[in-house]
Amino acid sequence: MTLAQARNVVLPCMKLLRMSAVPILEQLHLEERLLRTSVDNWCIVNDRTNRPTIVMGVSGRPSELIELKSVLRDQIPVIKRFTGGGTVIVDDGTVFISFICNKNAISGLQPYPHPIMSWTGQLYSEVLRGFGDFHLRENDYAFNSHKFGGNAQSIIKERWIHHTSFLWDYDIKNMEYLKLPTRAPKYRSARPHVDFLCRMKEYVPSKSTFIERTIKSLGSYFLVKPFDLDDITTEPPCTLPHSTKLLSRQELEDAYSSQCENLP
Amino acid sequence: MASRLLWASRAASYLRISAFHRGFSTVIKDLKYADTHEWVKVDGSSATIGITDHAQDHLGDVVYVELPEVGATVAQGKNFGAVESVKATSDVNSPVSGEVVEVNRELVGSPGLVNGSPYENGWIIKVKMSDTGELNSLMDSNRYSKFCEEEDAKH
Do A221 and B58 touch (CB under 8 A)? Predict the structure, then answer.
C-alpha cells in the first residue's frame, strides 16, 4: 500500500457538491436538511446566486438591520437563515462555501464556535497563501483589515455547519440596503461598507483558482469525493422553528410601520 | 495524517493561550447533567433546565436565546431551542421528556444571563416531566465534572 493509499484509508470522506447560480434560499434549505438528516461530511460550493438577496442571521430584526423603505420599494428578497451571525446582501458576485461535518470528523477539533472558526482560518490561510495578507479578524476573513468573507455556524448534537459568503465582487449600490450594524467587530472601527469591505477579485486571479485551492486544502483533512445535486433525494423541508425562511412582504411592511411609529 | 496532527497541535497550543475558556467549570452538586451540557434541577415532577457553566464558557457571549412555546412537548436528548453566540446557533437539548410549563422570558431582553448565571437566573425552561425514570440516565455532578475533563483533554 502506498503512503497516499494509507493516508486515504484514515481520512474521513467528504462529499463535494458544486453548484452554480443556485438561489440562496434553496442553498440554505439544502444545507439545513443535510445538517440535520445526513450522516456524511459535506462541502458545498455555489459560485454565485441568481439575484440580489438580503440574508439575516437567526436573530436578525429587519427594522434594525436593513433600510426597509428602499428594500420594499425595490422588492429585494429578505431571508432569515438558520445560522447565527450578521446580515449580508448576496448576488452574482458572491461565492458560497459551506462545510457540514460530524463532530468527530476533524481530529482534535472541539465542536464549539471558536475552535471551528479557528480551523477554517487555518484552512483558508493555506488556500490564500501568496494572494494577500489574509487574516481571521475576530470572526471575519480579511485581507489586512478589509473584510471579504462573512461567516456563520450552526452546531447541533453530533454535527456542525460553517458557511461563508465570499465577496468575490460586489455592487456598492446594493450595500446601501444594509444599515450599519449596532453589533459589529471592533476592527471595523465604525467604517462604512465601502471602507470596510474589499473584493476578492482584486487579490485572487479567478474564482476557479480559489475554489480549486480550497478543495485541495480540504484534502489534508478529508477524502473529497464529487457528488451530484441530482443524487440527493428530495425530502420535505425541515419544519423546525428556526428554519430558514423568506420574509413575506407583509412582515417587512409591518416592520416598516412599526419603525415609523417608533420614530420621535 | 501528518497535516491533521500538526493542525491539532497548533489548535491545542492556540487554545491554551487563548482566553476563550478557563480550563475549569463550575458544577453544582445537586443537579443532574446531560452529556450535551444541559443541567436539570428536579423538584418532584417538575424540572428546571439550563446549560452548564462549561457550555456557556465554550460558546462565548450569548446574544439570543430561542425559546419554545409554553405547552410544547420536549423529549429526552432532543433539541427544544437554541442559543446564539458569536456567529453560531447551538441547539439546546432537553435532559428529560415532558411538557414545557414555563420559559424564562428574562432571556429575551437579557440573553447574557446564560453566561453570567447559568445555574440560577439563566435557567431556560421548566418542564413537567412525563417519566422521572429518565433521570437515572443522567450524570451526577462528580461524573459530569469528570466527563468535562475527559472531553477537554481529548482536544
Answer: no
Q: What is the least distance, in Å, from the CA of A85 to any CA of chain B?
A: 4
Enter the pTM of the model: 0.90
Confidence (pLDDT) at A181: 82
Q: Note whether A114 contacts B4, CB cutoff 8 Å.
A: no
Cell triple for residue A202? 482584486
Predicted confidence (pLDDT) at residue B11 exceeds the cutoff of 60:
no
Mind listing the domains of chain B with CATH numbers? Answer: 50-145 (2.40.50.100)
In this structure, are residues B38 and B81 in contact, taking their beta carbons and an 8 Å threshold? no
Question: Pseudo-torsion of CA A54, A57, A58, A60, nearest 10°?
Answer: -70
Q: Which residues pair with A46 in a beta bridge?
A: A19, A96
Q: Specify the residue for cell string 447551538.
A: B90
CATH number, span A3-254: 3.30.930.10
For A162, the 3-state DSSP assignment is strand
Chain B residue closest in CA terms to A161: B88
- Which grid cell is B40? 436539570
**At a CB cut-off of 8 Å and minimum separation 6, what does B16 contact?**
none
Q: In sequence order, what are the residues at sequence separation of 6 or more whose Cβ sits closer than 8 angstroms to the Cβ of residue B110? A: none
**Grid coordinates representing B139?**
450524570
